[in-house]
Design brief:
About 70% of the residues lie in helices and about 5% in strands. The protein is mainly α.
Length: about 325
Amino acid sequence: MSSSSVGHPNGASNLRISNGNVPTVDHPPTKDANKRKYKGFVAGVFSGIAKLSVGHPFDTVKVRLQTTTNAHFNGPLDCLLQTLRKEGVPGLYKGATPPLIGWMMMDSLMLGSLTQYRRLLSTHVYPSNAPLPSLGHAIAGTFAGWTVSFLAAPIEHVKARLQIQYKAKGQRLYTGPIHCSSRILSAHGIQGLYHGLTATLLFRTFFFFWWGSYDIISKLFRRRTSLSEPVINFWAGGLSAQIFWITSYPSDVIKQRIMTDPLGGALNDGTKKFRTWREANRAVWRENGFRGYWRGFLPCFLRAFPANAMALVAFEGVMRALPGE
């Protein structure tokens, strides 16, 4: 006997008469199911706070090394010491306001969308009861990277321009993130604010390696050690982030060169050098050869482990603490 539906007084038809004349009920989505959709977005906020607190000083040194010549800084230690001597500790957190807000929003979107892409892949691409394979985690990471790029591009653009201001306060082109954003919008519109979007999308394609390796490393630790979940999150988060930066760093150098390139025109910040990603790539090679793609790598690599280890501990901890599983 085929199933038939019995109408509800309110128009719903969630009562079915199944084979054998036994009534069954199709339950609507539970509150817990709905909560699961938003947990990743909420937990991502805490990841962003942890990441910025630990990582921004490293990022400032990295960006300054990426966007200057060897004559300006002899290396990461020289850059750090010059910044501390001339600008103090606040100099290391220069441009931190947009990423503080930005990392909270970006990690919320990135990690929230990551959990949704994982769920979609588990349902539609790998529809078995087995856990999502590492390839699925890598693909979900790529999609999450592309998704967050549309939020990250203007935030990182403004941050990069603020980080390379070396002059005294009264002589700087921008007084802060809002002033920088408004000036760019006034002179070049929304397209100017999104300068570097293509480079950002390319850079975040390498999230494939980050989230694929995060899953692989996590599984290895669970199988071969008796470490607690937070400790596994810490080590897997830090090591996978370093794998990501090893694979993606040259593309980040090119992205930073594009984002700090003068926009010209009414902004009056200089003459534009790069019209395309390929021109910026050629400039990096022409100026320093292969080594140019790795300038500033050391502070970035040193930052990657603690910043992302703490970020993943925060994210996974909040995911476990929130109701809905």
